[in-house]
Amino acid sequence: MDENKTQSFRRIFKYVWPQWPRLVLVVFAAVLVAILFTLSFMTIGPLLKVMMDEEGMHGWIDRKTCDWVYGLDFYVPDRTDFHSGNDDISYYLRVTNVEEKSIAERLGFKVDDQIIGAGQSRVTDDVGRIPSTKLLEELAVAADKEGVTVQVKRFDEVDGSIDIRGVELVTKLSFLPGAKEADDSFLKETKEGLEQGVNEFRINFILGVQDAISFMPRNEAKANRARSVYFIIGVMAVVTTIRCFATFWQKYMAEKIVQISIAHLREEAFSHVMNMPVGFFSSEGTSDTMSRILGDTATTGKGVKILLGKALREPLKALGTLCGAMIISTKLTLIFLGLAPVTVVLLALLGKKIKKATSRSLISSALMLGKIQDVMRALRVVKVYNRQGRESDDYHQINQQFLRRVLRVAKVEAATGPIMDVLGMIAGSAALSVGVYWIFGESVDMKPSNFFLLLVLLGTTAESIRKVSDVWNKIQSSNAAAERVFAVVDAPSEYERSNAVGIDALKDTIDFKDIVFTYPGNEQPTLNGVTLSVKAGQTIAVVGPNGSGKTTLINLIPRFYDADSGSIKIDGRDICGATLKSLRDQIGMVTQNVVTFNDTVAANIAYGKEDATHEEVVAAAKSSYAHEFIEPLPDGYETMIGEHSSGFSGGQLQRIVIARAIVRNPAILIFDEAMSQIDADSEAKINKALSGLMKGRTCFVIAHRFSTVVSADSIVVMDAGRVAAQGTHSELMESCQLYRNLYETQIVSS
Q1: Lowest-confidence range among 10-19, 391-400, 536-545, 547-556?
Q2: Dihedral (C-alpha) 464, 470, 474, 476: value to the nearest 10 degrees?
Q3: At 116, which helix (H) or strand (E)?
Q4: Across the chain, what does the average pLDDT equal?
Q5: Predicted local distance difference test score (pLDDT) of residue 438
Q6: C-alpha pair distances (Å), 23 with each of 29, 241, 619
Q7: What average pLDDT does range 466-482 have in this prediction?
Q8: Strands 162-170 and 147-155
Q9: Residue 194 — pLDDT band, cuts 50, 70, 90?
Q10: Distance CA 326, CA 324 (A)
């Protein structure tokens, strides 16, 4: 796997590795599935041999025993051999292969040697011929002993003479006459020990199989062959049942790992978002971030699920079936694997296209989400202005763009399967053609049952490879999603100096000195050289035309933004050197846009103070005149405020928000157009309540309604990012033309 192409995707494993016990179970289950899957198909071999009447169950096991223990493989006669007039073929074992470095090779066995006697069944003056099945049985039964004496007939190709000799066929290399002691070399000892361990396992395994079928008669009667078939079917059923259970366990554990990992990733992303600068969302928008935390994390999880699922299970199954195929014919299997490099290259090219197309489709999906949110939030405006058609057209354009990009992904994914099928057919056809030649030729001994089993194994291998052909594409899709998720996780948090310390509550003054601030992406500064001093306990009203920088100036106090230059000091300490928590702990804010949460009324009010009691919540509600409409509700303070604040008027919600600020009891209060949603009756009541609340606190009020401005201790007039004038209402009416214009305009409009 290319590390550069999957760098973002690999980061998800930070949340996977802590679940290593589950990972071990997943891998173990996948290996078990692969082994059982291969075994279930390997049973087809003996089943075909029995049903095609090539050889019986015992004969096949005996022949495999000779192959694994002695390194000898024998020719299995078919019906054409008996029709050719060669009656002696049933009374000897013709050697067709001698394994390298095997016991048989070291004892001098050669291809075409004929074993005519073995063990207790040897040719004598009284016994002229011994059936080949009996010879096989003698050799196989001797596998758990030290050895067996065999009679070997060999034809001399030069002079045509026949040599019959007796050979002591041992079952272990250590039993060979003159066997050397183990070499002192550590590597050689290790190698010999490993080989000996493998041989011991093979011998014990084949002996175990012999014991398992010992209850079955050796004669080849039709009824006995049927019993052999039933036995094989029973074994297949048991193996399949265990394999299915292991598959279930592997899939479930993999899903559990994925869901836990993605849950942790979502939590980390959400927690990080809570500490990101407000300016990030002003420029990037909220819908795109929501799409990344919800949709893109899910897409990332799909890639992990595939890796722990079929990307692990299917290659192991393919490896198992390939091993089985290589046992039957290494050459044909290698021919089948000849197109593997081409397959890898094609999958890499398709994966690259998938990643690019998926990245674009995720962006379009985020745009769709943003459009839906905007329209749902402004649905009343859309309806009253009869703009449903325009909004539908806009959505159609975004949706069509998303559709085109999704179809690009679908096209590449749809092409992957057929391409793999074509490559598999080419490889399979090549192996099939050679195999057919071998079956009907005389140079290579391959029985039809072996060939059919080989076809099944190679076909199963191809199917397993086909199933994982889209894994790289899926991983590239997940990588594209992971890049978007980790772009949020890696985004810088709100800046706080490493040596920042807590700041005490305001006691003396707040000083703004030469403040210059420019929003990201803008060329002109919104604030340009603002200097202002505010005494603790004063109420400061900030007025000015739209775009003059009123809200921007106030947003610098809780450090939603940091000034380009200049400083803001509380009691002589620069707020940039203070911890954000200690700074914001002394600030309460009520904005023009009413912000409530999908929770109870009491929880929304208590949001301003984590440990607020019910009595404090009620007292704050009474101070903001919210108690008078909360109390009569059927559930009172436990009434839910819905996702879109349904059931409450704008004025009622604003009073709940004001109660939230009151319960916080902050040293600094910020009201940004806080009366904009309040009717005249509520405004009078709130002004009366706030007059008491503001005593002894520093309050910043941004308002167009001059009823909340004229009573301020000091009024700051902003214009084009600068302080145009400052003073009381009466002073500004006499000295500031801009203030008079604003005041007169508001009075006239009222």
Answers
A1: 391-400
A2: 120
A3: strand 114-118
A4: 76
A5: 53
A6: 10, 23, 55
A7: 76
A8: antiparallel
A9: low
A10: 5
Cα–Cα nearest to 599, from 552, 639, 554, 629: 639
Contacts of 414 (CB under 8 A, 6+ apart): none
How much is the pLDDT for 48? 61
Residue 312, Cβ density class (10 Å: 0-12 exposed, 13-18 middle, ≥19 buried): buried
Q: Is the pLDDT of residue 560 over 50?
A: yes
Q: 626-664, pLDDT tens digit by residue?
A: 888 888 888 888 888 866 556 777 778 888 888 888 888
Residue ranges in 645-736 assigned as alpha helix (H): 650-664, 680-693, 729-735
Q: For the chain, how are helix, strand and coil distributed in percent, rounded to 5?
A: 60, 15, 25
Q: Are 596 and 641 in contact (CB under 8 A)?
A: yes
Q: State the SS3 of 317-363.
A: HHHHHHHHHHHHCHHHHHHHHHHHHHHHHHHHHHHHHHHHHHHHHHH
Which residues are 379's β-sheet partners? none
Q: What is the rounded (10 degree) CA torsion for 4, 8, 14, 19?
A: -100
Residue bearing the bigger pLDDT, 43 or 601:
601
Structure-token pair, residue 495: 């800046």
Q: How confident is the model at residue 184 (pLDDT cuts 50, 70, 90)?
A: very low
Q: How far is CA 334 from the centre of its chain?
A: 34
Higher pLDDT, 387 or 101: 101
pLDDT category of residue 295 using cuts at 50, 70 and 90: confident
Burial environment of residue 57 by CB neighbours within 10 A (0 to 12, 13 to 18, 19 or more): buried
Q: Are 515 and 675 in contact (CB under 8 A)?
A: no
Q: How far is it, in rounded angstroms, from Cα 2 to Cα 394?
A: 40
Structure tokens at 735: 């000295």
517 pLDDT band, cuts 50/70/90, is very high
What does the alpha-carbon distance between residue 135 and residue 76 come to, in Å, rounded to a whole number?
13
DSSP code of residue 591: -
> What is the band of 336 on the pLDDT scale with cuts at 50, 70, 90?
low
Average pLDDT over residues 131-159: 79
Q: Is 182 helix (H, G, I), strand (E, B) or coil?
A: coil
- Is pTM beyond 0.90 here? no
Sign for the pseudo-dihedral over CA of 318, 320, 325, 331: positive
Residue 182: band (very low, low, confident or very high) from pLDDT cuts 50, 70, 90: very low
- Rounded CA-CA distance 343/314 in Å is 16
What is the rounded distance in angstroms from the CA atom of residue 435 to the CA atom of residue 230?
Answer: 29
The pLDDT confidence band at residue 191, using thresholds 50, 70 and 90, is: very low
Radius of gyration of the chain (CA): 43
Quickly state the pLDDT bin for 350 (edges 50, 70, 90): low
Cα end-to-end distance, the chain, whole Å: 70
Contact between residue 147 and residue 170 where contact means Cβ atoms under 8 Å apart: yes
Alpha-carbon distance of 374 to 287, in angstroms, equals 9
Other Cβ atoms within 10 Å of 152 Cβ, number: 23
How far is the C-alpha of 360 from the C-alpha of 356, rounded, in Å? 7
Please, what sign has the CA dihedral across residues 410, 415, 416, 418? positive
Distance CA 745, CA 750 (A): 9
> Nearest Cα to 529, choosing from 517, 549, 511, 515?
515
DSSP 719-748: ETTEEEEEE-HHHHHHH-HHHHHHHHHHHH
Which three-class secondary structure string do you get for 451-515? Answer: HHHHHHHHHHHHHHHHHCCCHHHHHHHHHHHHHHHHHHHCCCCCCCCCCCECCCCCCCEEEEEEE
Report the distance separating Cα 138 and Cα 145, nearest Å: 11
